[in-house]
Each structure stands twice: as C-alpha cells, then as structure tokens.
C-alpha cells in the first residue's frame, strides 16, 4: 500500500519502474506467464527494488523494535533501569545523514540503484526488517509481494 501511495506522489518514478517491469516481463514482445515471474527476474528490477527500499526507509515507523534492558543503562542524562522496555524510534536511523547520503528526509526512489542494496538487505541505517539475529526471515517474500 505505501509503495503504491508513494508512486502516486512521485510520478517521476512511475515511468522508470513501469518500463523496467515491462521490459523484464516481455520476451520477444510477448508477455511471459506469471509463473515465470520469479525472484531471479525480480532481482533484475534494480530501480523498482530501489524504490521499494526507499519507501521502507521513509516509512520507518512500521518497524516495532522492542528490547528489554538486561542491566541498568546510562543513556545521556537518564538511567534505563534493568527490565525496562526500550522502543527505539527507527525513523531517526533512517533519516540520519550519518547513514544516508544526500537529503535523508527526502524520498529519492533511485537512491539505492548504484549502491546495489536490495530492499530486503538490512544494515544499521536500514532497519525495516530488523537486524542481526532479529532479521525478519520472511523479508524476501514481503518484498516480492510489493512488486
């Protein structure tokens, strides 16, 4: 839903993604059957994948990272007592210039094409699907469903 909403708001990306999917789903000017539209084909859709990754980055509040402090923790002027639930605001990572070049608060659908970071790839600046041992195992299916 958010991908379609952002495509509507950013028509400059509509032509790019439409053309890319059209080119990937045609063989000798004949549409390929949906059964042949697989992950191998979708991986070639670098512009569409970049747009999806960027939408996920901008819509950072969809991530629900809840952790429990295992010990008392000094955080600036505050102490987080052991056993407290901590809910980091993921958007602050996603919108940080430390992790994202250019204007991180502006949606740039083609931001990830040259960097070759897939929508399902996680890192410190892109927590849409978690990180490390908490990475969502269904992230590949989720991204495929956004195509």
Outline the structure in words:
With 147 residues, the protein is α+β, with helices and mostly antiparallel strands. The chain has one domain (2-146): Orthogonal Bundle (Cytochrome p450), CATH 1.10.630. Helix content is 36%, strand content 10%. The chain has six helices and six strands, in the order H-H-E-E-H-H-E-E-E-E-H-H. It has helices at 2-9, 11-24, 39-43, 46-58, 90-94, 139-146, and strands at 26-27, 30-31, 67-68, 73-75, 78-80, 85-86. The strands form three sheets. Strands 1-2 form a two-stranded antiparallel sheet. The protein has a two-stranded antiparallel ribbon with strand order 3-6. The protein is elongated, with a radius of gyration of 18 Å. The protein starts with a helix and ends with a helix. The relative contact order is 0.17.
- Strand order, sheet with most strands: 1-2
| Number of domains as seen in the coordinates | 1
So how many helices? Answer: 6
Specify Rg, calculated over alpha carbons. Answer: 18 Å
Please identify the top-level CATH class: Mainly Alpha
Largest sheet: 2 strands, antiparallel
Keywords:
147 residues; Cytochrome p450; two-stranded antiparallel sheet; 6 helices; 6 strands; 36% helix; 10% strand; elongated
Set down the secondary structure blueprint.
Layout: H1 2-9, H2 11-24, E1 26-27, E2 30-31, H3 39-43, H4 46-58, E3 67-68, E4 73-75, E5 78-80, E6 85-86, H5 90-94, H6 139-146
GO molecular function: heme binding; iron ion binding; monooxygenase activity; oxidoreductase activity, acting on paired donors, with incorporation or reduction of molecular oxygen
InterPro entries: Cyt_P450, Cyt_P450_sf
Keywords: Iron, Metal-binding, Monooxygenase, Oxidoreductase
